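pinging the channel bc i need a second pair of eyes. not urgent but kinda urgent?? the chain im working w is below, pasted from the shared doc
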Amino acid sequence: MRIDNLSAGIVKRATLLADGRDIIYYDDPDTTLGAERAVDARTLDPRPATATMRQDVLTGDWITVAANRQNRVMMPSADADPLAPQTPTNPSEVPSRYDVAVFENRSPAFGPALAEAVGTAPAASDAPRGLDDLDALGLGRTRTSVGRCEVVCFSPEHSGSFGTQSVTRARTVIEAWADRTAALSQLPGIQQIFPFENRGEAIGVTLPHPHGQIYAYPYVTPRTAKLLDSIDRTAPDLFARILEFEQASERVVFRGEHWTAFVPFAARWPLEVHLMPHRHVPDFAATTEAERDELAPLYLRLLRGVDALYDTPTPYIAAWHQAPVNVGRDTVRLHLQLTSPRRAADKLKFLAGSEAAMWAWAAEVTPEQGAARIRDAIASAEAAAAASAPTSEETPA
């Protein structure tokens, strides 16, 4: 096992699962865990062959065909949770008790990567030959879906989300995102790193365990390609201009020393919030310790406010956009795009004809109304938390 001391007192412990996949433990600074981690003694089937990508010649998009993902676990009970620590009756994916754990997905859309990069993984038979190769158009073009898909377990508990974690635990997860972004960016053929959390069955979540994922793509994603084009057509400091524009508006949700949350001027979703650093940083690996320290409570504040909008938890996608590995590092800024299809307590926005087929959106909630609702929900959540906190008289000596 390799052990590294990271910032904020967080300790990283890297080892392997029974089939050779990486698993990395990130210990909280105040962890109660010991230094040892159990060995994965399972007998596992060989790792699946790397998926194939097919190009849609009409759009240039690359579509991954990963049939191995059909057999994923769907909403298991607590005693069969594949992300919980292993027990004698539950041979899960994580051998030991943990604070935060990151491991390679057993049913990935991308990867395993090249054999020399990950040891036991099958070699890619027809890997992409660089960005120019991926940009070329042609009928019947295929490439091996080189990359990496990782699972990020926020907690050993069976249920919850990022927003239910403590500030300390949130800070550990942010450190894990930064560490994995740096490591995955060094793998051969990787072009972009995407940390994200899907929350709620309405989004399509198949596991109730509090977790997110990190995708390492072999191409620059279509959304980021459009973003790069917009920067080319406007100005290299487009993100700085956007932040200044939004900070002067009534769409600001809150502002800290290093981060501002706002509903964007042209928000598509009934609930959409962006969270952006005040200085240019391309990805989590480039953030300072002070920026990570502030992000932990601010991000929790946002998520808990979003959950206070209704009587039941809000489904969402928390998408952390980062600059590509090899292009746009000086222009594309790290930022969160938090979106939810929930447009009322009992109503969801479905992408039908115009939006799904033509990518032409119509919004039902004005961004200014959305920002006001989220500000009110954050205030409500904080008032409820303060009311439920023990008073000095109730606090044990």
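so The two ends are 40 Å apart (CA to CA). and The chain has two domains: 2-219, 225-388. — does that match what u expected or am i reading it wrong
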